[in-house]
Structures are given as C-alpha cells and as structure tokens.
Write a structure and sequence with these properties.
Order of helices and strands: HHEEEEEEEEEEEEEEEEEEEEEEEEEEEE
Shape: elongated
Strand order of the largest sheet: 4-3-6-7
Structural class: mainly beta
Largest sheet: 4 strands, antiparallel
Strand content: 35-45%
Distance between the termini: 124 Å
Radius of gyration: 44 Å
Number of strands: 28
C-alpha cells in the first residue's frame, strides 16, 4: 500500500477556500471552515477522522494453520500502541458470508496465537490498530486459518520397484490426499519397532541403509502441511541383495565384564552376510579408533573374547569389527568400557552320590555353575573328619583333585566319616563348603 499521506477532509476544505479567495482578489484571505475544525474533535471508531494518525489498516495479515493453534502476524504501524484481533467461523467462501466478527484479543505486538480455535473449523480473522488517544484504523482484509488435526489419507499401492546390492527402491500412489511429503518406515518383523528410512516429496524412495540379506517389511505414510501423519499404506517385503561386496552389519555388543584380571566381551552378529572373523580393538578414548594398528587386541572366529588384563589396563574402551568371507569389514560396534569388579570365589557344590565300601568311601559331586565373567573351576578339595560339623580348619584330612569324584581309601571299617568338598577356580579362590555328608565303610 502507498505510504504517501492521505489528503484529509479538513485540508481539502482549506485548499478550496484559498483557491476561491485567490480567484477573487489574487490574495488569500480565507481560513479553514469552522465545520472542519469542529470535526477534528471526533475520536473513536471512525478511521476517517481528520486528525486520526491510523488512517491505514495494518498490512500483510497472514494466518498460519497448525495442529495446536492458528498463528497470526501482520505489519506493525508506528502510531499504533495495540491491535485488536477479531474472529468468526468462515461459513462460506466470500468475505460477506462471514460475520458478525467477535473481538478475540487486544495485544501490544503484531502477532497473535489462537490456541482456543475449535479443531478442524475454518475461521476468518481480521485486525485493526489502536492508539492511546482512542483512534482506530480500518480493519484489514480477512484471512482464513484452521487448527488442522485431520490426518491425510493413506498412500496407496506401495510397490517394490527394485531390489539389488545397493538397496531397495519403493514406489506408491498419493491416494488423492493433501500430503506434502511422505515418510518411509521399515520393520524387521510385523511386531518390531519401526525404523524411519527417510522422507521425500516424491512418490518413490530408495532404502540404502538396510542390512544385506535381511528381509524387511515396509510401509509409507503421508504428512500434511501442518505435520499430521496418515495411517500406514499396505505392507510389502523386500531385501537388499547379498553379494561379494556386501558390507556386514556392525557387531552388537552384549555382555562385557572385567572381573579381577579376566576380561570377557560378548557380541551378536547378523547372519545374512557370512563372517570369517572378528577383530577386537581397544583404546583409552571413545569411540575406539580402529584405524590405528596399535589398538588391535586380538582376532577370533567366535562371538566372544576372553583375555587377561593387568591392573594398569583396566581403563580401556573396546570395540569389535566383523570381516566377511570376502574380506569386507563392517563398521565398528559401539565402544564399551567394562566396569571393574573384584574377583569372586566359585559357587559351592554338593554331593549327589556317597557309597561306602570295604575300607573306602566313594564320593561324587556336581560341577558348580559359573558366569561368563567368572574364572572357571579348575579343581576341588575334599575335606574329611571323624567328627560332625566339619570345617576347613578342623578337618583331619584334605585331598585336591581335578575331577568331580573321589574314592577315599584306607579307612577303618565301622567308623563313621564326615565329608565336605569345595571348588577352586583358576584365580586360586576357593568356594564355601558343600553340605556335609557322612558314610561308614565296612571292615
């Protein structure tokens, strides 16, 4: 709108009087009419007052529709100290089909956010300016906005267009919706969490990030201009082709423990690209730098690594890289730092068979369980006494063995003997005593 000052009625009347006077005598003698002077006293709802500084409406009123609100903005006027915002439901398409407007708010800035709009109802908005003297501007032309909560229609006919070693290409139809973009999701199974592949404004998208050989389920959803997302399309399944150049998936780190000097790392691996070996790396910073040969710890064909760590080597991060049968390496796994734990003695065991014989007693017991971070059991110690309540300290005899059975010979027939057994691990730690048993050999 032009910024040239509008010629006010008082000025027009004064100019006419001057011309008339000049036309008669050549000299201006007339003053402005008293009626014009009187009209200058009016204030209020008339934007055409002769002294009204708000003779133009605010410019560029804009309504931005959203899911939670309708946001209004307009150009500010230097003479304005506030703005009135009006709203009414837009029943028709023409401006005269809306009304009467109701004042929604009076605000000091040239913006307003209408959070009270009913969802999915189109409203017409207009604004006018005010000043401290009570002057008002004309209204802006109305604009329309909607708090839009209606999701677009679902895309249709999702189709696998291509499967190759570079990825999976999918296409679909818009379904005559108001979507402005589309989001592609994939699942490892129908009930697994969705992974967002990417978004596009076209009707095709290529998934290059899936693991080769793994069968994925795909769906696509439409998104409208305010962010409402549609329901999913039909589902399709597709696979990135495995070839000699396929990159294995990165190993997924699982259990990692450092108990005493024993380090245990375990991981899992996608089976779709054949793996020939795994390389373990370590460094004092995370992520582990797998490009430095000095950080290489070991290579193994198993999905587990067990090693010995000194006291000065406890503060390290570890990562694993998989290498395919065609010598193609994966990205590194996540870097993990095992928390140090003091070594633990093995679990106690118990006898399951006690058989007295002629001058002997035959004993058999279970091998105790141990966790992946525990040192393995390497032997057992059998304790014997001729009195009940046997302890490690009061035992009259002990014998070390590497097997889970022992025959105690050279005993006196008719004498009752009491036994307990402990397990010993490779760290040299001994378990608690087993439950006590007794037996009386024959003569």
């Amino acid at each position: 709108m032009s910024q040239l000052p509008r010629l006010r009625p008082a000025a027009v009347a004064s100019a006419a009087a001057v011309v008339l006077a000049l036309g008669i005598s050549g000299t201006a003698h007339a003053a402005a009419p008293t009626a014009a002077a009187g009209s200058a006293q009016r204030v209020g709802d008339d934007p055409d007052q002769p002294d009204n500084p708000l003779y133009d409406a605010p410019e560029s009123l804009h309504a931005a529709s959203g899911r939670e609100s309708v946001s209004l903005s307009w150009g500010s006027l230097s003479a304005a100290t506030a703005y009135e915002v009006y709203r009414e439901e837009a029943e028709g398409t023409e401006p005269d089909e809306v009304g009467p407007y109701k004042r929604l708010a009076t605000v000091p800035e040239s913006t307003y956010v209408d959070r009270d709009a009913d969802p999915d109802v189109e409203y017409a908005y207009k604004v006018r300016a005010l000043d401290d003297a009570g002057h008002v501007s004309p209204y802006t032309d109305p604009v329309r906005g909607t708090r839009d909560t209606v999701a677009p229609l679902s895309p249709q006919d999702l189709t696998v267009a291509r499967e190759d070693e570079r990825g999976v290409t999918l296409t679909w139809r818009s379904g005559n919706s108001d979507s402005v973009k589309y989001v592609l999701y994939r699942y490892t199974s129908p009930n697994s969490p969705a992974t967002k592949v990417g978004s596009t404004t076209s009707l095709t998208l290529r998934d290059t990030k899936g693991d080769p050989g793994l069968m994925y389920t795909y769906e696509v959803r439409g998104v409208d201009a305010v962010g409402n997302e549609s329901r999913g399309s039909n589902w399709v399944t597709a696979t990135k082709t495995v070839t000699d150049t396929s990159v294995p998936a990165a190993p997924r780190m699982g259990n990692h423990q450092l108990v005493g000097k024993r380090l245990t790392l375990e991981w899992s691996q996608s089976s779709y690209v054949p793996i020939s070996s795994y390389t373990v790396y370590r460094s004092k910073t995370s992520p582990v730098d797998i490009t430095d040969p000095a950080n290489r710890v070991a290579t193994t064909t198993r999905t587990q690594y067990i090693g010995t760590v000194g006291e000065d080597e406890r503060d390290y991060y570890y990562a694993v890289v998989a290498t395919s049968a065609h010598d193609v390496s994966s990205a590194a796994s996540a870097s993990v730092k095992p928390a140090y734990e003091e070594p633990r003695p093995p679990y106690a065991t118990q006898f399951y068979k006690v058989t007295p014989g002629a001058g002997s007693v035959s004993l058999s017991w279970y091998a105790p369980p141990y966790g992946s971070g525990d040192a393995p059991v390497t032997g057992y110690r059998v304790y014997r006494s001729t009195k009940p309540g046997i302890t490690k300290e009061n035992a009259e005899f002990s014998h070390d063995t590497s097997s889970e059975d022992y025959v105690d010979r050279g005993l006196t027939g008719g004498t009752t003997y009491y036994y307990a057994v402990t397990a010993i691990n490779e760290d040299g730690l001994e378990s608690a005593l087993s439950p006590e048993v007794s037996a009386t050999p024959t003569g």
